[in-house]
Structure formats: structure tokens, C-alpha cells
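Cross-posting from the chemistry board since nobody answered there.

I work mostly on the small-molecule side, so proteins are not my area. We synthesized zinc ion and want a rough idea of how it might sit in this target. Sequence and SMILES are below. Is it possible to get a predicted 3D structure of the two together?
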Amino acid sequence: MSKNKFSGLLDGYAKFREEIYPKQKKLFKELVEKGQRPEILMISCCDSRVNSSQIFNSKPGDLFMLRNVANLVPPYQLDSGYHGTSAAIEYAVTELKVKLIIVMGHSYCGGIKAAYENKDAFAEMNEETGRGFTHQWMDMIKEISTDIQECSHGLTERDQLRKLEQENVLLSLKNLRSFKFVQEALDNDELELVGSWFDLDRGVVLIGNEETKKFHVLKG
Ligand SMILES: [Zn+2]
């Protein structure tokens, strides 16, 4: 980040130092002394417009945050790869013992659009260009993307993308259950899973139903 770009953050930082931190000083002290005990794991996209702390007006210590491209949960895979998302889920469930995991998708998701369009820019792993990580990551939803495009004649592209954004959330819930420690916590009624989708046009959160695959506006 250049000096100029960084200076754009300084006003916000000054506000944090002068107004926000003094009000939360006691809370930070408690969180340091007792450690964090978040009850919710929030899995959302890296997208700069989707900030779950802001949407739910949560405080430090409330949400264990996991953000990645297109809020994907990969299926359980026990191999020697560097599974950052799976590691965060394991820590949240087995150590922090969160009570709720929320997967939050959103409208106009760039990762989902790239997977839908199968863009050349998101080329396959290539030693020469040193690129391909996004392609490899989004490969997880290739199948549902193809299904939606083949079975959704009559729907506009935006509607198909919304369907893919939402079904992607439901797939992540399914993949969460493929982790033994998640399924065990669910079986013991110690954990709940919720799929949601943030509508940027209206500023509302919708909650998904895994059986009907429909999403309904959350009453706030
Ligand atoms: Zn996104």
C-alpha cells in the first residue's frame, strides 16, 4: 500500500482512537484478560462491500470472522495442502466451541460471476504465469454453476447469478457437515448452521432454507 493510500485510513483511525476505543477500552481489557469467547463463526466473502460486523452492529469479541473468495467452505479433505479455511473452522468449533456458524453470501459476488462465466482471466494453474489459485478455488462450485445454467432457461443472467450465489451458500452448509467435528457438534445440539445472503441493493439479509432452497428476508 502506498503512503497516499494509507493516509486515506488515518481519519478513520483517528476516530477509532479518539471516540471508539475509549468507549470500548473496558471491553478490550476484558477480552485480553479472559480471552475471546465468540459464540458465532461468520464465514463471508472478501468483498469490500460486505462487512458483517457493520451489518449486525457487533462488538469486538462477538464474531469469529472467516473471509475468503465467495464465502466457500471446501469439503473435508485430509491431505498435506494448506487448508486455511478448514483450519479456521476447526479452531472455531473444537477450541472456541462456537454455537452458531453463519455462512453469508451476497449479491454481485465477483467470485461467483467469474465461476459462472468461466473467465479466461481466472485461468487454470499455470507454472509460467504463476496464476490459477482463483480458478482452482472456484472449481468447487463448477457443478452447481453448470446445473443452474442448463436448468434455468427463462431466468435472466442476474437471476441465475443470484441463484448460484444462494445455492453456493447451501453447498457450503453441506460441506460443513462433512467435517466430523461439525457433525458431532450438530448431533449433540451444541451447534447450529445458518445460510444467509446479503442483498446489496436493499441492505437486507436473507436466510436460506436448505430443503426448499428458498431465501427469505430476515426480520430485524
Ligand atoms: Zn463475493
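Reply from a structural biologist on the board:
Welcome over. Reading the output above for you: Residues 45, 47, 70, 106, 109-111 surround zinc ion (CB under 6 Å). The beta strands are 40-45, 63-68, 100-106, 192-199, 204-208, 215-217. Happy to explain the C-alpha cell format if needed.
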